[in-house]
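Quick check before the chapter quiz. The format below is the same one you will see on the exam, so make sure you can read both the input and the output lines.
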Amino acid sequence: MKPKVAVITGASTGLGFSLALQMASQGITTYATMRDFNKKRLLESFARRKKLDINITPLDVANPGDVSTCIEGIIAEEGRLDYLINNAGVGYFGALEFLTEDEFDKVFSVNVKGAFFCTQAVLPQMRQQKSGRIVNISSVCGLVGMPFQELYSASKFAIEGFTEALASYLQPEFNIHFTLVEAGQMSTEFGHNAIKNSTLTKVKEYKEILKKIQRRSKIDKFAHDSVQSADLVAEQVMLCLLQERPPLRFRTSDWAEQMCKFKTQADPDGKQQYKALCVE
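Here is the expected output.
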């Protein structure tokens, strides 16, 4: 029996990087994709050191032509596609009044359009083979609007609705399972870049609000200790992928559960919501 085949987007750093290594270690034929192909050397180095075979492939998820070419090529090569991990994402940490149209377009092109285009590209094959797993990397910000993360939250709220809608008819009819990973705080290049590029220092009042948020984080031991490594979150995603009936959604830490409890306590894993919407 041929190994299962996975495509991971945004695999140059962080969670996508860790997932590529962990999936390959499980014997899954892994295609690790990234927009900036110059960043492939680090993943190549880790794969070589661990004696793992990973196919590193260039892919700009915001370009529908690029997505089609990439996915069609993988299916032609492998004859199947079992897992899609929509992980590619960009952040924005700042006040709405300083948001530019280019920044808005970038966040929605990668975070929303990217997931739409990639999912659209894999569905014909998964529907034909009547099996597949699609994991959309969301965030606590996909359920809770966080201070100064309104643009990022909007993009992740969109992914939540997108995933719920698809699961309601594709899962029961074609055995294509969807899962939202509502990640908590991760120590990755993604978060550091979002804060580094912030515009909050332009307005005194916003700067003071930011200081309050930072002070609260420092004294809140629960929040401070909640920052997870990408490797740990990747392990949780792997456990989810191996389940026969994975949840529609799950949070990756106790901190994430606490932040989302007012939205999720009636239906923590989304299975009740799924049953209410399910088209059977």
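If your answer matched, good. Residues 72 and 141 are 32 Å apart (CA to CA).
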